[in-house]
Amino acid sequence: MWRVVDSPIGDLRVVADAGAITAIEFSPFKDGVEIGERADDDGLLCDAAKQLEAYFRGDLKEFDLPLAPQGTPYQQRVWEQLRLIPWGSTASYGEIAHRLGQTNAASRAVGTANGRNPIPIVIPCHRVIGANGSLTGYAGGMERKQTLLDVESEGLF
Fold first, then answer.
1. What is the CATH number of domain 73-154?
2. Is residue 52 scored above 80 in pLDDT?
3. Beta-bridge partners for 16
4. Contact 18, 68 (CB under 8 A)
5. CATH fold label, 2-57
6. pLDDT tens for residues 11-32?
7. In angstroms, rounded to a whole number, what is the distance separating the alpha carbons of residues 121 and 128?
8. For the chain, what percent of residues have pLDDT higher than 90?
9. Which of 46, 61, 123, 139 is most buried (CB neighbours < 10 A)?
10. Which listed residue (91, 121, 125, 148) is catalytic?
């Protein structure tokens, strides 16, 4: 099941299955993806919408939602590390690799896993930056990444 949430970075489609959030998609949404029925009144999806709205206002710094991202064991380990990056902070791909017990050589693998994160914002892949502090790729686009970082540094919305 799913619902759409309006946000400063465009519509977000929040998808849930078996009592957990499985995806947040940026618009334009992918056609042909099996996500079930629209369920605007579902309690979990309503809670997710409220938390996302509070996040964009700068009132919520940690999400409290059941999550079930689908990925490889390595991707799961990377995504768990992303959840440990505090609101308003950033970490480099190399830092994430080191936290996983790997060298900087694993930065590319971390970046690949980061880019496959199915639950952006809640699993904050936007907080991962280049070693020199520069913004680097983001599945939702660089403008969205910058806006998310701005929300966390300035509480703009």
1. 1.10.10.10
2. yes
3. 21
4. yes
5. Double Stranded RNA Binding Domain (3.30.160)
6. 999 999 999 999 999 998 887 6
7. 12
8. 78
9. 123
10. 125
SS3 of 86-106: CCCCCEEHHHHHHHCCCCHHH
Structural tokens at position 11? 């519509």
Is pLDDT of 37 > 70? yes
Q: Is the separation of the CB atoms in 157 and 8 below 8 Å?
A: yes
Helices 107-115 and 73-83: crossing angle in degrees, nearest 10, is: 90
On whether the CB atoms of residues 122 and 53 are closer than 8 A, the answer is no
Tell me the three-class secondary structure of the chain, residue by residue. CEEEECCCCCCEEEEEECCEEEEEEECCCCCCCCCCCECCCCHHHHHHHHHHHHHHHCCCCCCCCCECCCCCHHHHHHHHHHHCCCCCCCEEHHHHHHHCCCCHHHHHHHHHHHHCCCCCCCCCHHHEECCCCCCCCCCCCHHHHHHHHHHHHHCCC
Q: What angle do CA 24, 29, 33 make, to 5 degrees?
A: 85
Task: Kindly list the domain boundaries of the chain, sorted by start residue.
Answer: 2-57, 73-154
